[in-house]
Amino acid sequence: MPISSRLFYSPPIFHSFPELIAGESTRHGGVSEPPYASLNLGGSTQDDPEHVAENRRRFYASLGIEADQVASSHQVHGSEVWVTDQPGRQQGHDAVITNQPGVFTLVTVADCTPILVYDAGTKAVAAIHAGWRGTVAGIVAKTLQTMQEQYGTQPKDCYGYVGTCIDECSFEVGADVADHFISDFKRWDETREKFFVDLKAANAQQLRDFGMPEHQIGISPYSTVLNNQDYFSHRLEKGLTGRMVAVIGRK
């Protein structure tokens, strides 16, 4: 499915829910200039703040939502979950959950894995940011457990999307990182004498371990590195690049 020129990618796993708005931004359709070209949504970058504001306006408009409906947090690569019934901005959380319509949970990424969850039973949603530290800390599992405690979420009712991030063949790491992952999610490359870690697989497994049915899990076919023409990659672009977001909520 070509995504060139589109402001966002809509995960097919959620298409059967007309009440839901869910998407992850691309790098297309904004006003930012290189190296942030063009739909940079990251306020922590050195991009022109007016460009970022206009990009956000365009992105939200493309989804049919307003900026003041969004719930997000300054992320710290941890495993704290913000439970909210209203929009706003917090500090120190890497996941946001709500069961309120009109509140859209959002996370920011540029190689880390965004995970979106919809509980079709209780109508709760979650947006999760999982870098390698958050993945190892089990942030997906912790978020789902929090949804169960707060809203009574049941695994059979959940639909999950593991979003676009750095792919396994591009995520080269040393033993200091690889040692945190079980063998299922890492590969030793004899030629490069480096490990390669699969963040998508590691986070998808946390959805399965919660009991989410396999056919209710979607995984992005895209990579921030291999599809860099469509997505920002912090690693490939050596830190000088924009940021994407992933968002989910009920109308």
TrEMBL record:
Highest taxon listed in the record's lineage: Bacteria
Chain residue ranges for the region called Disordered: 25-49
Keyword line: Hydrolase, Metal-binding, Transferase, Zinc
GO molecular function: copper ion binding; hydrolase activity; S-methyl-5-thioadenosine phosphorylase activity
CDD domains membership: YfiH
SUPFAM superfamilies in alphabetical order: CNF1/YfiH-like putative cysteine hydrolases
Gene3D superfamilies registered for this protein in UniProt: CNF1/YfiH-like putative cysteine hydrolases (3.60.140.10)
Record's catalysed reaction(s): adenosine + phosphate = alpha-D-ribose 1-phosphate + adenine; inosine + phosphate = alpha-D-ribose 1-phosphate + hypoxanthine; adenosine + H2O + H(+) = inosine + NH4(+); S-methyl-5'-thioadenosine + phosphate = 5-(methylsulfanyl)-alpha-D-ribose 1-phosphate + adenine
Keyword Metal-binding: yes
Entries under NCBIfam families matching the protein: peptidoglycan editing factor PgeF (TIGR00726)
Family that this chain belongs to: Belongs to the purine nucleoside phosphorylase YfiH/LACC1 family.
Descriptive protein name: Purine nucleoside phosphorylase
Source organism per UniProt: Siphonobacter curvatus
Organism ancestry: Bacteria, Pseudomonadati, Bacteroidota, Cytophagia, Cytophagales
Gene: pgeF
